[in-house]
Amino acid sequence: MDPITLSILIIVFLFALLAIGLPIGFAMAVSGFLGSTFLIDLDAALSLLGQTAYETTITYNLSVVPLFILMGYFASNSGLSEALFNSCNTWLGYRRGGLALATIGGCGAFAAVCGSSLATAATMTQVALPEMKKFNYDDKLSTGSIAAGGTIGILIPPSVILVLYGILTESNIGDLFLAGFIPGILTIIFFMGTISILTRIYPNMGPRGAKTTIL
């Protein structure tokens, strides 16, 4: 079979696997294995399957991923996440929608520690959501600010996603971190601006929190 035709069929097969709900990693592995089998032979495909999996897992750069996750675990269990939220709450909590603003700020600060969007969202849910419920924040604003704030972990260094992208594309990870910093800061600003506009239009969504003192 013509290699171009075979490649097109493999791509169609890949999308078919994705359409039936197969996880992306498995769908790509199966499609790649079948493509290698038809283009070369079965022995070569089996060899590539084992070699690629082994070489990928022993990559030195991947060691930063569990270390970032471990650092996030330490930060969460040491009370750093609460301290970050409380610090942002001190400056922003008394404003209308201030707790949601503090949540976005806390997410940005915590993302700079762990580099994981899921870990950031999960941690800030435990810290910020009870406070927003206490002050009768709208559920849409409460959960939306946490979910949106969690995505900041993709951009703010040290982002695990940027590390994996750099490894897969053989890009300079330091340059990727520098490239993600400014968009991450802008995302925080835009999220805060959106919350401020919403709470100004709909004051009941985010009542003012209690004033706190720095000292």
If you had to describe this structure to a student in words, what would you say it looks like?
This protein is 75% helix and 0% strand. The chain is an all-alpha fold. The protein has two domains: 56 residues, no CATH class; 143 residues. The longest helix is centred in the last third of the chain and has 29 residues. It starts with a helix and ends in a 14-residue tail after the last helix.
Architecture blueprint of SSEs:
Blueprint: H1 3-19, H2 24-39, H3 42-57, H4 64-77, H5 80-92, H6 98-114, H7 117-134, H8 139-150, H9 160-169, H10 173-201
Helix pairs in contact: 1-2, 2-3, 4-6, 5-6, 6-7, 6-8, 6-10, 7-8, 9-10
Give keywords.
single chain, 215 residues, mainly alpha, 10 helices, 0% strand
- Alpha carbon gap, first and last residue: 75 Å
What fraction strand? under 5%
CA-based gyration radius = 22 Å
Taking the sheet with the most strands, its summary is: none
**Computed structural class:** mainly alpha
Low-confidence stretches: none
Percent of residues in helices comes to over 70%
Query: Quick check: average pLDDT?
Result: 82
**Count of strand segments:** 0
Q: Helix and strand string, N-terminal first?
A: HHHHHHHHHH
What's the tally of helices? Answer: 10
Shape, per Cα inertia axes: elongated
Number of domains: 2
